[in-house]
Structures are given as C-alpha cells and as structure tokens.
Protein 1
Amino acid sequence: MGRARTADPIQQFRFRIEIEGISELGFTRMSGLEDEIEVAEYREGGFDTTHKLPGLETTGVVTLERGATRDLQLYEWYRDSLCRNNTQDFRKTVTIIETDCAGNEIRRHVLYEAWASKFTRPEFDATSSEVAIDTIEIQYEQSETIAN
C-alpha cells in the first residue's frame, strides 16, 4: 500500500514569495525565516537550580536571492528604507507561500513590518557561466504561519 501524499514532507524548492506593492518577482532561494524566544534565567534563594522563563521574542533576517534582471523594484525598496522622513511607508508585508507538487498552497508565512536592510549586487567573473544573483536582506518585526 502506498504512502498518503498528505503525510509527505514539504519540499523545499516549491515556494512563492509575494512582497506588498512589488509585482512579478521570482526568487531562487530564501533563508533565515526564524523566530526565537529569549530565555530569562531567574535564581531564587534556597534552590540549587535556576528557573527559566520566556523572555522577549526576536526575529531572524530573511535573505532572498534571485537572478539579476533589469527590474529595479527590490533595489528601490531598499533605497526607500533610507528615506525615513519621506511620507511613503517603506515597511511592507512579505508572504512566503509553500506549495505542493501541483502548485496548491500548503501554508504561508507572513512577515509584518518588513523592510529591506541590505542589497547585494552580483559578483562578476568573466571566467564563469553562472547567473548573476541579486541578494536582499529583510528585517521584520512579527511573523505568523497560517496552514491552508
């Protein structure tokens, strides 16, 4: 008897990324999606051990990579982050969507109050045949995972 498809692990190469207000971007790699709760240790008199309590939640830095194109929307978003006095809000909602082999949505990770903190241009090498890659690092304040 075959294994049920619903029990199969999610494949890491099936994903889409949507950035609020930026259209038609395809990414080859995404990493750094992590949240962590700091541990606050408390020592009480008379005990030989410490109590460990949940502290503040911190978020990671998401890194997105894609083949370099003429489209400068990601770079412009990064530049918008430098103009904090501008009336335009540089913070966006970023959604990472995991899909199954048929392209159906399995779950989504929503990053709130996200902004671009670093933009890395491609490395050029005349002896290589690899694709030029743009990399952008995104800071975010909160995340939520939603199952479909």
Protein 2
Amino acid sequence: MKKSVVLIIVVIVVLAGGAALLISNKAEAPNPKANTAPMDMKQKDNTADTTAPSTSNSVTIQDFAFSPANITISQGTTVTWTNKDSTTHTVTETDGKDGPKSGDLAPGKSFVFTFDKPGTYKYDCSIHPDMTGTVTVTE
C-alpha cells in the first residue's frame, strides 16, 4: 500500500512540473520577427554570406554573426564593429597577428581598429567562437 501511495505522489509531482513548464512557455509572447531557427541553422546561414568579400569599413554584430563576415579594405582604414545583439560579444584576432582585440563589447557598443599593415586578419568572438570573420588589408 505504501509503494502505491508514493508512486501516485511522484506521478502528481511530475505532471504538475510539466504543466508549470507548459504554462511558463505560453506566458512568453512569440515575436513574429524573431528568427527561431536553431543556433546551428543560423551558423550555416551565416557561412553562406561569407563567400563574397565586402569593401565596407563597418561590421554589424547581430544574430550571433559578424555581417559582413569578410571585408577587404585599404591599408590605414579604420573598421568599426557595432554590437546590435542582445548579448555581449568580442572582436578578437585569432591568427597571431597584431589585429583587433576589443575585450567585452556590450550590446549597443562599438569598437574601432585601424589596420596599418597589409595582410589577412582572422577574428572571432572569444565568447562565441563559432562567430568568425576576416579582414583583408590591401596596400
């Protein structure tokens, strides 16, 4: 008799927890403009835009991606990264060159870096290393 009472209590607790989870998920109103794709889908989409380099000197950080991910600039050009995401990111050089190192870049903040030497500079977000970008500097 005692085992069946314990079993009934366990079932009630599990059902109550599941109901609370469903209610809390419905309490958040869906944002029709939000991208609800899984993170790995966003990453695959982001790599698709990286084939053609841009000649812009501005990079937007949004939806856990650098956009454009690849840019080509002239030596001496200053590049500005602006974090338009809802979380902190970084712009961190990854290939041992004297490239950008922003430190933590809070939402709404910008970071600037002037590229004085020609070459290819790879960078990522050190918090989210799947976020990558490249700056190609020409003479």
